[in-house]
Amino acid sequence: MMNDVFSEMAVFGVALTVVMYALSLWTTKRYPRIHPLLLCSAGIIMILLLFQVPYSQYAIGGEWITLLLGPATVALAVPLYKHWMLVRSNGLPIIAAVLAGSLTGVVSSVLLLQGLGGSEEVILSALPRITTTPISVEIADHHGGFAELAGVFTVLTGLFGSMVSTPFLYKLGIRSDLAIGLATGTAAHGIGTAKVLKNSELQGAYSSLAMGLTGIWLSLISPILYGILVS
User: Fold this and answer.
1) How many whole angstroms separate alpha carbon 112 and alpha carbon 186?
2) Which residues of the chain, if any, have pLDDT below 70?
3) Torsion over CA of 185, 91, 73 and 196, rounded to 10 degrees?
4) Residue 100 CA neighbour count, 13 Å, CB half
5) Reported pTM
């Protein structure tokens, strides 16, 4: 069958991902309200289901794309380096904003899921959703959550945050690169940072710093937060 031929090739996962992302970018140029990553993910899922290709077979090549996340994340430090003096001059506001934003994100996750009757395992999985996927997965797994579910929560948080952060802040009358960058990086990690970087290099610098600080901060205090918020 066709799916057996293509799925056994490692290049299948890479080709499918690249083609779908290119089509998504082309589509979003005509319909800017559609997020390219959301459209790309939905398209890949539909194709895998249509041709009955197991995810494990797609991942043989799809994981090659994952390897690029490391260099891509490191590359976010470039705008931060270029604007370091300006970033440094706003050190205290940056630290205060990241601490307040990360704590708000964690507490809101717990309270919302508790109010909806979520199980403890689900809450443990969602608690670190504001950090990047590698960090959130490790934190959730270490404290008794489900690593896979933590990954889903994290990706959805990034997608949603990247779609609504800038329009929402604009509606509130906020135009500051500092405020937009810090809010997006703290709440929507890498996906949000990539989004604001297209709008402004300075916003990308602030967002990448907020993303890194949030990951470090939440990793350090996660044992305390889990003990206090989840009981």
Assistant:
1) 19
2) 1-10, 62-63, 66, 69-70, 229-231
3) 40
4) 9
5) 0.79
Nearest residue to 102 (alpha-carbon basis) of 183, 197, 223? 183
Burial class (CB in 10 A: 0-12, 13-18, 19+), 4: exposed
Helix axes 36-50, 10-30, angle to 10 degrees: 130
> Which residue spans within the chain are E strands per DSSP?
none
| CA–CA separation, 124 and 183 (whole Å) | 23
| Burial zone of 226 (CB within 10 Å; 0-12 exposed, 13-18 middle, 19+ buried) | buried
Angle at alpha carbon of residue 216, lines to 211 and 221, rounded to 5°: 125
Q: What is the DSSP string of 158-212?
A: HHHHHHHHHHHHHHTT---HHHHHHHHHHHHHHHHHHHHHHH-HHHHHHHHHHHH
Give the Cα separation of 220 and 21 in Å (integer).
35
Contacts of 219 by beta carbon, 8 Å cutoff, 6+ apart: 131, 135, 139
Predicted pLDDT at 1: 45
Q: Which one, of 176, 13, 220, lies nearest residue 86 by Cα?
A: 176
Neighbour count for residue 20 (Cβ, 10 Å): 20
The single-letter code of the amino acid at 120 is E
Q: How many C-beta atoms lie closer than 10 Å to residue 204's C-beta?
A: 26
Distance CA 69, CA 168 (A): 28
Rounded Cα distance between 21 and 64, Å, is 15
At 16-25, the pLDDT tens digits run 888 998 999 8
Residues 147, 99: Cα–Cα separation, whole Å: 24
- Amino acid 65 reads I
